Amino acid sequence: MRVRCEKGALEKVSLRVFALAALCAACISPGARLHAAETREGGGAFTLERFVEAVSAPLELLFRPTGPAARNVRKGPVPGRILFASNKDATQAVYLCEGGRVTMICTNGADPSWSPDGTFFVCRPTASSVSWDLALVDTSGRLIRLLKPFGNGSATQARFAGRDPSAIYFRARRDLYTPGALYRLDLATEKVTAVSFMAMSSFDVSPDGSSIVCAAPMDEAAPTSKDCLWIMDASGAHARPLGNTSGASCPAFSPDGARVAYACPDKASLVTQIHILDLEGLRQQRVTSSPYPKNRPSWSPDGKILCCEAQVDTDGPAATVIFAVNADGTDEGMLGCSSAPSTGGPARASCPSFSPR
Asked: Is residue 5 part of a domain?
């Protein structure tokens, strides 16, 4: 049966056969790819692979624990849905993990972040030659909208404005001559407002949308100084450092907004571990302890579990995988380990994002 590609989606009658054949091919050839639709904007081409009916596989099929890291597999279940990016099939793609199964959502997207209602997500491009900055995609892989506030593909991170689905904060360069900054984009009017010109490496928005936490140099006059955590109003005003958080990165607000999870090198081992900072008393707690560097924590909707990316040793090249740990530091372990992509380089499963619902 011939599979015909249309602008919006594949013919439904052909997709079942196509999906089954492609999934079987993926088991035989690590480089097998599922190609369904292409979206072109301006002069740059962006391939967004859409799956009208989810083509999924068990977690162990796409992500096989191997080598010494196989002993660090989480024992307890991780409820809910987790988006993450991976180069599993030699092309950067966004995947969805739910109920122990992994589904590829779309390719050529990175750093996915959920909408407040958990029905779609925002991601950035993996190529710098495109004429768009961010994309809104639903969980079936349907492209909802391309966002082009600057039209230069320079966005490096994006987060919704807390529980407000009408605005997105993002880091980007307005042009080649302007340093990177934090901006707010109103989705209805497409108005872009500069929020902060701090040299931040990462940020997050509080659930109520009133505050922003970021990792930025401790000394604003010395951009090469170590990062620490800062907190500011949603407008960028009243920025102030948070406690003794030297070396901190990748902050993430808890669902109740009372705590911030972040990555920071352990003082003894120098291995980057996940910590939690209580915003009320500025008490700090390390929650991970395995000997693998970890980054990009994300909270479960009930605030009881954290997932993060971790770099582990395997039988092949070093891989970046998804770890999960209870917020009290118990049951730390890997959700799965990605086998090497067809390029032969190290596999990478990164930027996990728990669905808020």
From this structure: no
Q: What is the pLDDT of residues 5-32, one digit of tens each?
A: 333 332 333 333 333 333 333 332 322 2
Q: Taking residues 173-189, what's their average pLDDT? A: 92
**What is the value of pTM for the model shown?**
0.81
CA distance 217 to 247: 9
The per-residue pLDDT for range 328-337, each reduced to its tens digit, is 999 998 885 4
Secondary-structure breakdown of the chain: helix, strand, coil percentages, each rounded to the nearest 5: 5, 45, 50
Report the CATH number at residue 253: 2.120.10.30
Classify residue 285 as exposed, middle or buried by CB count within 10 Å of its CB (0-12, 13-18, 19+).
middle
Number of domains observed in the structure of the chain: 1
- Asked if the structure places residue 123 within a domain, the reply is yes
Q: What is the residue range of 158's domain?
A: 12-354
Q: How far apart are CA 284 and CA 75, in angstroms?
A: 26
Cα–Cα distance, 259 to 217 (Å, whole number): 21
